[in-house]
Design the sequence.
């Protein structure tokens, strides 16, 4: 049996997994297929502007690997735009990580290691940068920073 490929950690599941250009018959339609991991790389870097080091950490992959995912995702999206292809987002090796640290879906392969964020996550003061662990069931935005009194945000 081949060694399972390490799966990627993703923090969201796209609600839409198929993008089709109008005016093209299905029979003539070509697809550009992105993996969930690639769409996650795009989401973190290009949509949320997370820097690459942090984004790679979130996905538990090395920076070069993250960079490869990002490049291939961008290339596929560009290919779809330039050549009028549909974009399909599917599978690959992934593990769904929710904010509470539970595993939702599981792709092929297996995962090791503890989860990145502990249960509850971290609250951060947007004003002074003070951080503390979030108390389970208590949203960060209901808590004031003990240092400066600003309402905290979820990190
Ligand atoms: Zn503060």
Sequence:
């Amino acid at each position: 049996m081949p060694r399972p490929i390490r799966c990627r950690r993703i923090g969201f599941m796209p609600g839409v997994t198929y993008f089709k250009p109008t005016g093209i018959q299905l029979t003539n339609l070509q697809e550009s297929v992105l993996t969930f991991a690639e769409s996650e790389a795009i989401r973190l870097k290009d949509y949320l502007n997370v820097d690459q080091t942090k984004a790679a950490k979130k996905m538990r992959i090395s920076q070069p690997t993250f960079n490869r995912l990002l490049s291939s995702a961008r290339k596929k999206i560009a290919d779809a735009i330039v050549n009028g292809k549909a974009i399909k987002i599917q599978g690959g090796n992934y593990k769904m990580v929710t904010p509470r640290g539970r595993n939702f879906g599981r792709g092929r392969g297996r995962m090791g290691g503890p989860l990145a964020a502990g249960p509850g996550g971290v609250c951060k003061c947007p004003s002074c940068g003070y951080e503390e662990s979030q108390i389970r069931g208590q949203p960060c935005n209901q808590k004031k920073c003990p240092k400066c009194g600003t309402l905290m945000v979820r990190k």
About this structure: The first strand starts at residue 8 and ends at 10. The radius of gyration is 19 Å. Residues 125, 127-128, 130, 145, 147-148, 150 surround zinc ion (CB under 6 Å). The mean pLDDT is 80.
